[in-house]
Amino acid sequence: MNYGIFISKPIMTLNDLAQIGSHNKREKKAYNSNPDIKIELSKNNIEIVPLADKYVKGFYNLTKDYRKEHEERMKTERKERQKTFTEMLNKSKSVVADELLFTATHNFFDTMTTKDIVDWANTCMNFVYEDLGYKKEQVLHATIHLDEATPHLHCVVVPLVKKFDKRTSTERYTISKKQYIRDKIHLSELQDVYNVRLREKGYELERGIKGSDRKHIKMKEFKKATGYYEDKVSAINKNLDNAMQEFEEKMKTTKNSIIDKEYIKVRKDTFDSMNNVIKETKKAIEFQPKLEQLLNEVDNYTKSHQTLEKENRSIQREIKSLKTRNHNLLEENKNLKSYVKIILKMMKQFFRKLLQIGNELTKEATTTEIKEYYDANYLESNDVYDIAKETTREEELFNYAKVPSYLKSSRESYNDKEKRDYERSL
User: Fold this and answer.
1) What span, in angstroms and rounded, lies between the C-alpha atoms of 312 and 33?
2) Which of 29, 135, 256, 388 could form a disulfide with 397 if both were Cys (CB 3.0 to 4.6 A apart)?
3) What DSSP state is assigned to residue 81?
């Protein structure tokens, strides 16, 4: 299955606009920074909306009324507040233009002729006019690039509009992308509409990964987050290792526990070391959803950008590195899950031992801990059954975890049985 891709990229300054124009019109003699561009094929690129001039000159022609209005307004401004049209645009928090990028996963274009690709691009342009609401005179330039691995359409628009200004009670020109794409939620809705338009025209494309650009997490941010989680997983594994080693050492001394007529005492340091294991295991379990969310984010990011990565070799290398690190994190997460599973099994055995041989204070604390684990979904009913059966806390815990009544033991004397079992284990 192939995916349709529509991305909106804001252009904030005229210098940025000039750089994008130089790229889109292939005005550079060489593309050393992007060897994926086969400059000898650039003659095959097709302009859907031509522009004979450079981007900035074309922009000034498109916005000449806006510029005239601005210059008239500056005549009445105080000298220290006066700005040229260019200064005003570059220092504004608004965009000067918006680049709309349309493409699809590579196999979609495999069987297409040049005419087929032009038809697809015209469908994209109809979406720009009919669904985004741009007029033809607002389109600065639109071109199909056929000199890269995956054909794609660049459409640069200038969202020039007239809006009512409450301060002056007049209509004034402004450039406002929000008049066409209000926010990220609206962009996602437009991407849905775009997908519908493609399918209505008979193109077998699915919508791109929904929400993949919701947070606009840049590559550097992903790398930083991935590094943090790698360190976090490593720390969790190390802490669990240390806690387990300490607990195993303490368990070697449990045979020296004091046997009394009324109860059996468990060494406090042994119990404390198990509590430490429990604490570190809780941290690992609580961390898992965050780790899995990152893994999904990275996976979605790489999938949704698998065609765009071809535009820049450095991005391609970054994504390849990110995929490798993501794979390593998946393996770490798998190992961590296995580790947690083993520790939970050991904890079940330890909980059961405490219910069998501990004094009443120990049993009370252990029962509370078991209930907390059950409430947090770390233990299920069958786990509680395995831990509590044939102990003095069986009835309380069975009722709490809703263990079926037919599984309840016929009990004679727990204390005697537990004491015999413990003495037999010595």
Assistant:
1) 7
2) 388
3) G
Strands 160-165 and 170-175: antiparallel
CA 242 centroid distance within chain: 32
Nearest to 53 by CA among 41, 45, 42, 61: 61
Q: Using CB atoms within 10 A of its CB, is residue 381 exposed (0-12), middle (13-18) or buried (19+)?
A: middle
Q: How far apart are CA 111 and CA 134, in angstroms?
A: 31
| 320 touches 223 (CB < 8 A) | no
- At 352-379, the pLDDT tens digits run 888 888 788 888 888 988 888 888 777 8
| Strand 205-207 with 2-11, pairing | parallel
Structure tokens, 57: 């000159």
∠ CA 305-309-314, nearest 5°, is: 135
Higher pLDDT, 396 or 219: 396
Which residue type is seen at 312? Answer: N
For residue 151, give Cα distances in angstroms to 213, 221, 279, 355: 21, 28, 54, 68
- Paired residues of 175 in beta bridges: 160
- Three-state SS at 160: strand
Q: How many angstroms separate the Cα of 79 from the Cα of each of 76, 88, 355, 385?
A: 9, 14, 84, 83
Q: Are 47 and 143 in contact (CB under 8 A)?
A: yes
Return the pLDDT at 84.
93
Range in 75-84, 234-243, 366-375 with the lowest mean pLDDT = 234-243
Pick the closest to residue 401 from 376, 365, 426 (CA basis): 376
pLDDT at 372: 84
* Least confident residue range of 166-180, 212-226, 305-319: 212-226
Q: What is the pLDDT of residue 170?
A: 83
* Residue carrying structure tokens 């005697």: 416
DSSP string, 84-125: -HHHHHHHSSS-SEEEEEEEE-GGGGTT--HHHHHHHHHHHH
